[in-house]
């Protein structure tokens, strides 16, 4: 008589810390808390697809609930095929609405406007994100010893993908400004008091900067939207896929290339 809580306990103990990056772990743990409240005491093998209907039938917060069920489905899959705790993953028969990919595209004018108003370290982070296309966590975690032979060597925290990004003159200029920061240490981007930014610390700095810019008439965007701006500015879809570290081009096309794809018509030879 395995309950959902029994499965989530093992999921938290074995799966989350071993398989997921720190930021993703925090997201999963937050979702697990909601799942315990909604389904924790239920017998997992007695659940039916209709039991999840009321959970999804809400006006607000539907996207979060879809994500929560995705976490529960991952836990059920482990419970079926790895831990042999239940017979089947009932969520395979539950149709969950697909969330629409974010399509906010930052204009060059918006980027320049926020960049001009931002503190120095936010400006440097924005430039690094635009030129390299890397996630916030990889930007603030970048160390000087990862830069060698005119390449930045990155192992992405989220996926483990390893990249060697060429240090172009534009990127070298940004790195030189990072090198000139006071209290320079092992990290490329340091706090004013020295040391590395935590994810929460940089996120708070970014939100303060964004709130001030919005009060002056700007339209809010996320730091992650800069990654999409980089992908959109890449010369080709393939170049964007490789720079962002995607394993297949469908993710690049569906989520990150947000501009208009300009194409040429077919040219027919004269008879």
In short:
With 271 residues, the protein is mainly alpha-helical.
Count of individual domains: 2
End-to-end distance, in Å?
A: 76 Å
Please give the CATH architecture of the largest domain: Orthogonal Bundle
Rg, please?
22 Å
Helix content: 40-55%
Percent of residues in beta strands: under 5%
The unreliable regions are none
Helix/strand class? mainly alpha
CATH topology of the largest domain: hpI Integrase, Chain A
**Strand/helix succession:** HHHHHHHEEEHHHHH
Annotation, overall tally of beta strands: 3
Largest sheet: 3 strands, antiparallel
Mean residue pLDDT = 94
Strand order of the largest sheet: 1-2-3
- Specify the overall morphology: globular
CATH class (first level) name of the largest domain: Mainly Alpha
Number of H/I helices = 12
CATH homolog superfamily of the largest domain: Intergrase catalytic core
Characterization of the model:
The protein has 271 residues and is mainly α. It has two domains: 4-93, DNA polymerase, domain 1, CATH 1.10.150; 108-256, Orthogonal Bundle (hpI Integrase, Chain A), CATH 1.10.443.10. Helix content is 52%, strand content 4%. The chain has helices at 4-19, 22-39, 53-56, 62-81, 108-117, 120-132, 136-140, 169-179, 199-215, 224-233, 237-244, 249-256, and strands spanning 147-148, 151-155, 162-166. Strands 1-2-3 form a three-stranded antiparallel β-sheet, with no helix packed on it. The N and C termini lie far apart (76 Å).
């Amino acid at each position: 008589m395995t309950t959902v809580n029994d499965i989530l306990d093992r999921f938290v103990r074995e799966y989350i810390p071993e398989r997921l990056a720190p930021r993703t772990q925090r997201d999963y743990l937050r979702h697990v808390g909601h799942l315990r409240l909604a389904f924790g005491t239920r017998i997992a093998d007695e659940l039916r697809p209709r039991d999840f209907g009321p959970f999804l039938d809400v006006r607000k917060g539907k996207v979060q609930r879809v994500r929560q069920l995705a976490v529960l489905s991952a836990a059920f899959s482990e419970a079926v095929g790895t831990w042999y705790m239940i017979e089947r993953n009932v969520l395979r028969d539950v149709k969950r609405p697909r969330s629409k990919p974010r399509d906010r595209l930052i204009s060059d004018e918006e980027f320049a406007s926020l960049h001009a108003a931002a503190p120095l370290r936010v400006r440097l982070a924005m430039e690094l994100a635009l030129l390299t296309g890397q996630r916030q966590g990889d930007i603030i975690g970048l160390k000087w010893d990862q830069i060698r032979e005119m390449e930045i060597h990155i192992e992405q925290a989220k996926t483990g993908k390893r990249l060697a990004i060429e240090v172009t003159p534009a990127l070298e200029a940004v790195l030189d400004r990072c090198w000139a920061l006071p209290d320079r240490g092992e990290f490329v981007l340091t706090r004013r008091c020295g040391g590395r930014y935590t994810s929460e610390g940089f996120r708070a700095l970014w939100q303060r900067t964004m709130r001030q810019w919005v009060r002056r008439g700007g339209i809010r965007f996320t730091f992650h939207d800069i990654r999409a701006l980089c992908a959109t500015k890449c010369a080709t879809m393939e170049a964007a896929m490789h720079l962002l570290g995607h394993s297949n081009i469908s993710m690049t096309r569906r989520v990150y290339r947000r501009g208009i794809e300009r194409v040429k018509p077919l040219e027919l030879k004269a008879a």
